[in-house]
Structure formats: C-alpha cells, structure tokens
C-alpha cells in the first residue's frame, strides 16, 4: 500500500510539472557546431559555425515557449552555449556556463531543455567556454509577445537583427594563449555587422514603411554607437522591457546589451549607411551596412555620419533618458508599471568593485579583490550532490576590502530566495565596465560619477527606470541596481568584456531556498552531463 501511494504521488507530481510546461508549444532545434573558414575582415580565419552559418541561426520563440535544443559538438575542444538574457526561471541547470554545466565533449551532444518563461524581447546566444566567442558561434534570440497581449506600437513591416561588435583577425586560440600568458588583448582589428565587414550586409526596406531593428553588441572589448544615415531611431524595447518611445539620432550600446528601434523609411529613395563605431576609444573603428530602399537607383553617398567618440557626458544623459513604459504590457497583460519596484526597501546592499591586479606577475581581473578561477566540477552540480571542497559560500566579500591585494578563488556569494537587494557597481578604473547577471532582470536605479555613498540614493529613479540584464558603469563612477532574488539557482555575475571575464572578473551568486521543492526549482535534468568529481554519479530515474 505504501509503495502504491508513493507511485501515485510521483505520478501526480509529474502531471503537475508537465502541465506547467505542456500547455505551451515546444520548438525543436538541432545544431551542428563545426569549424569553418570565414573571411569577415578579408582575412581567412577559423570560425565557429552553427549549421554551417556565421552568425548562427536565429531562435524565434513566443513567451512561455519550450525550446528543445540539441547541440552536437564537432569541434576538437569542449563546448557550451549560453543564452544572454534568457532568465531560465527555476532552471539554472540550463544556463550553459562553466559554473552550471559540464562541457559537451568533442564528438558528443547535449540537449538543452529551457523555457522562455514570462519573457519578451531581444537577446542572443553565444559560446561560453575557452574564448570561443572570439570565433563566432553566436546568434540572435527573438521572443515575441503572445497574440492576445497588446504591444505598444503597430506591427512593423519587417523585423531585422543587427549583431554588431568588435572583431580580431587572429584566431580565438591565439587570443586565448595571449591571455593565458598574462597579457591583455590588443586593440581590435575592426567591427562587424552580422558577421560582415564594410558594406557587407544589406537591409532592404519599402518606402514609407516602418521596420524594427533589434541591435545587440556581441563584441569582446568595446562599446559601440549605432546609427542610420538620415533616419531617426525610435527606442521601443531594452532587453525585454518596453520603453518610453524616445527618438535618437545615434545610440550607445555597451558590451552584452540589446535593444530595439523602430525606423521609418521616410527619406528620398536611395541607399543609406547603417553604421556602428567604437565608443570611448582614442582610435575609432567604424563599419557600415546598407539600408537599401527597394526602389533605389542610387548607392550610398556622402560621408559616413559621425557620432560621439570619447565623450562620456552625452552617453550618461542618454542612459538616464531610457525609461520604462509604465502603461505598456510586458509578457503578461498587466501593465509593466504595476510592479512598484521603488516602494520596496532592499534588505541589504552589496557593493562590487572591479580591479585589474597582477597576480604572480600576470595580468588578471578581479571583483572585490577576488579573481575567479573555474572549479574542476560545475558549482551547481557540486551543490546538488553536496560534494565538498569544490567551492565555499562567502568566498567573495559583499563589500570591497581595503587595500589592493588580490587573490585567486572559486568565488561564490550566498543569497536567500526572495531577498530584495541593492547592488552597487563601483568602477575606479578609466574604462567603461559592462556587467551582466544571469537569471535576472534588474532595475537600474542610478548612476553617477565618483564614490557611491548612502546619500547617493537621493538621486535614484524609483518610479520608471528600465529593467534589464546588462548595465554599464562609466569610468570612475558607480551604477546602482535593485533586484528581487526570485529565481533559485547558481547564477553567473560577470564582466561582458570577454578578456576581463576570462581572466577572473566574474563570480557566482547562489540563490538558495531551503524548501527543496519543484515549486522553487526544477530538479536536475535526467540528461545532465556529469564531470569532475561528479563523474560516476547518477542524476534521477525520471
């Protein structure tokens, strides 16, 4: 009788679990990851292709869709894909970074099972290991609103993806060896738009019609400025948040960030430059694509339109102008502004300070004096199996220590489910920082120059700041965010400057619930890859 009850309980639990996801569509995707010759800057390179493509194929999904993505690794190195901005609700098992997943070994495959739960917007995927991002392997993620959820703009005539960022002519393994030897990367060789160099990509539009451009900075080291010759950019979305629809002539997009603009083809029919250029660099790199009117008989002409270069004040003002559209629906029908983030008092403040120390004579990067080193076993898997010695909670302080000493550590910060925290990113370096938090969207409540103090809160926007997953911190400045820790798991907090991330400017936030309930966190996947000290163990029977 006891066994029968146990079986019945398990059956009911499975039905409840499957019912949550089963009512939403499943999309099945198969990717073959290979090396291939690419010529993005006119020089032959070894690129990472997905199904023979660079950039990789788009992922198109609707809010709450389930994505079943089978990845076959035909490289000669371990490989993982991560999903920049996809929150993996209750499911850090699928996050695709070294702290959550064992790598897919050469010649093997792994199937990601993830849900774009309660999300809309523009994001991208990328390879997360071994500096593979410098070889490509990235692509766009577009999450569309459900048909009955109102969207605060008319349906555009077309939807274009712009994956822009800096690029190196050297192969990824050469760059990796350079970093491993204790040196920083040189200045990039150029910029790409959708994997192409100067005038290598064309967007075709019909006169008088309006189009959506989803722009992501998928580069390694530099912020970019985006603009279209003679056309206005109407901002409508930032990383899943509908924004007030301000209009810009050019727009700064920092490493790892994504946003959407409406662009109306309201100029004389001809071809126009679509431009990306580096921001905050003494030497300015520029690349172009073509906006082609379908009835155009004239190619691009005139100088490439200019934009700010090293000036910081205009970028700060622009960043502060990005506001949440309080009356627009997000992924659910209720208005975004119905969540009053500014009326909730944070339970604690965490300050994170980046630095660029030399440790044992080699260039490293650190957070609060700790330079992250990967463990031999993914942290999430070690936590599940309670394997000792892989990491220690509290191995990174929640406040910058005094002094300039830095050390190596597999750094993990402890946090509790349903905490509401204030995080201050303090940047004393002379370069713009870009920070990303996996598993979450947070509210960028303030940014300013100098040292953050409690008095800085008087300048916070507690009404309509935007919610996003990646934020910039200007030189010798701070940025503050509010974040509700409503997603149990092991979550990567990292620099989006990929050299800094690779050399230690990252750590993991373990958001813990003692309930041990599927309501708070999904169970370990049955197909989870086990490696390191977890090798030989078993996941679960069903």
Automatic annotation (TrEMBL):
Which residue numbers delimit the Plastocyanin-like domain? 33-146, 159-296, 377-514
Keywords attached to this Swiss-Prot or TrEMBL record, sorted alphabetically, are: Glycoprotein, Signal
UniProt GO molecular function? copper ion binding; oxidoreductase activity
Task: Read off the Gene3D superfamilies from this record.
Answer: Cupredoxins - blue copper proteins
Which InterPro entries does the UniProt entry name for this protein?
A: Cu-oxidase-like_N (IPR011707), Cu-oxidase_2nd (IPR001117), Cu-oxidase_C (IPR011706), Cu-oxidase_fam (IPR045087), Cupredoxin (IPR008972), CuRO_1_AAO-like (IPR034273)
PANTHER family per the record? L-ASCORBATE OXIDASE HOMOLOG ISOFORM X1, MULTI-COPPER OXIDASE
Similarity annotation: Belongs to the multicopper oxidase family.
Protein's name according to its UniProt entry: L-ascorbate oxidase homolog
């Amino acid at each position: 009788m006891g066994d029968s009850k146990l079986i019945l309980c398990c059956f009911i639990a499975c039905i409840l679990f499957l019912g949550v996801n089963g009512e939403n569509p499943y999309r099945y995707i198969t990717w073959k990851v290979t090396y291939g010759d690419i010529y993005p800057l006119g020089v032959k390179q070894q690129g990472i292709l997905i199904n023979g493509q660079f950039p990789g194929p788009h992922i198109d999904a609707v809010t709450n869709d389930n994505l079943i993505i089978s990845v076959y690794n035909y490289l000669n190195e371990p490989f993982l894909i991560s999903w920049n901005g996809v929150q993996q609700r209750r499911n850090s098992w699928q996050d695709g970074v070294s702290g959550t997943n064992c790598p897919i070994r050469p010649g093997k495959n792994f199937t990601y099972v993830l849900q774009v739960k309660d999300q809309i917007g523009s994001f991208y995927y990328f390879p997360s290991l071994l500096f593979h991002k410098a070889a490509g392997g990235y692509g766009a993620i577009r999450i569309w609103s459900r048909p009955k959820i109102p969207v605060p703009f008319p349906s555009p005539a077309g939807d274009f993806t712009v994956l822009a960022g800096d690029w190196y002519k050297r192969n990824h393994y050469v760059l990796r060896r350079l970093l491993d030897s204790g040196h920083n990367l040189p200045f990039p060789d150029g910029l790409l738009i959708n994997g192409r160099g100067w005038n290598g990509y064309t967007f075709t539009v019909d006169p008088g019609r309006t189009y959506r451009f989803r722009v992501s900075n998928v580069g390694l080291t530099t912020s970019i400025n985006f603009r279209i010759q003679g056309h206005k950019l109407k901002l409508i979305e930032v990383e899943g948040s509908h924004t007030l629809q301000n209009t810009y002539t050019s727009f700064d997009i920092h490493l790892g960030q994504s946003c959407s603009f409406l662009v109306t083809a309201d100029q004389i029919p001809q071809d126009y430059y679509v431009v990306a250029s580096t921001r905050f660099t003494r030497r300015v790199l520029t690349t172009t694509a073509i906006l082609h009117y379908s009835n155009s008989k004239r190619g691009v002409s005139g100088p490439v339109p200019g934009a700010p270069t090293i000036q910081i004040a205009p970028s700060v003002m622009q960043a502060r102008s990005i506001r949440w559209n309080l009356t627009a629906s997000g992924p659910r029908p209720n208005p975004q502004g119905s969540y009053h983030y500014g009326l909730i008092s944070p339970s604690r403040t965490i300050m994170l300070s980046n630095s660029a120390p030399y440790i044992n004579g080699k260039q490293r990067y650190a957070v609060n004096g700790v330079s992250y080193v990967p463990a031999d076993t993914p942290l999430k898997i070690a936590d599940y199996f309670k394997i000792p010695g892989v990491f220690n909670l509290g191995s990174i302080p929640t406040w910058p220590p005094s002094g300039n000493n830095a050390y190596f550590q597999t750094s993990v910060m402890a946090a509790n489910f349903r905490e509401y925290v204030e995080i201050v990113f303090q940047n004393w370096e002379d370069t713009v920082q870009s920070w990303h938090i996996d598993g979450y969207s947070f509210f960028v409540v303030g940014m300013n120059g100098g040292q953050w103090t409690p008095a800085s809160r008087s300048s916070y926007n507690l009404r309509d700041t935007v919610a996003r997953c990646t934020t910039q911190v200007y030189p010798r400045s701070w940025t503050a965010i509010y974040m509700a820790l409503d997603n149990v798991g092991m979550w990567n907090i990292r620099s989006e400057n990929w050299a800094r991330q690779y050399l230690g400017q990252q750590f993991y936030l373990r958001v813990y619930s003692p309930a041990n309930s599927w309501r708070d966190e999904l169970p370990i996947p049955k197909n989870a890859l086990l490696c390191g000290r977890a090798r030989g163990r078993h996941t679960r029977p069903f």
